[in-house]
Amino acid sequence: MNMKKFGPAGWLFPKPVMIIGTYDQDGKPNAMNADCGGSWDHTEISLFLGKRRQTTLNLQKHGEFTLALANKDTMVGADYVGIASSLREPDKIARTGWTVEKAPDVNAPLFTEFPLTLECRVKEVLDDATSRDCYHLIADIVGILVDDKYLGEDGYPDIRKMNLICHETVHQTYIQLGETAGKAFREGAKLR
Q1: Per-residue pLDDT tens over the stretch 44-54
Q2: In this entry, which stretches build a coiled coil (predicted)?
């Protein structure tokens, strides 16, 4: 067996490209690109954010946010909000060209171009004494919004229609998710 060994790195794939939407203290919408987080439970998510970010300040003040999953159509704006800070570029959201509405069930912006958006409320902030720059939170998923054009015949989201992208951290690229490879909890039954 030939295997190349690498040192420690955050190479857990796929990493969804998540856009965190918040309002600042004046009610102005803000967004950031985050890829450190995921499911915590069936109705909870976990996120790791830097402490010195506008989004973190907004979360500390309001405690509610939206989490949109980026796709190929929203990739340019999604990447931009990851490299631009609203602390230095106050017109960040306007530059993306995104349409902003207030989310129905949380006090946070809804960017309507995204195929799927979670409405979230901070449940707990975990103290991480090992990192001075880590803001680790657990949030309840209050609701999920899906654009009708991404629903399947069964009325549920059809992920294949969404053209979702993930962040590939080895080469710093975005990869579009592809076709169905099999049925979860059924493929393994072939070995019984």
Answers
A1: 999 988 877 88
A2: none
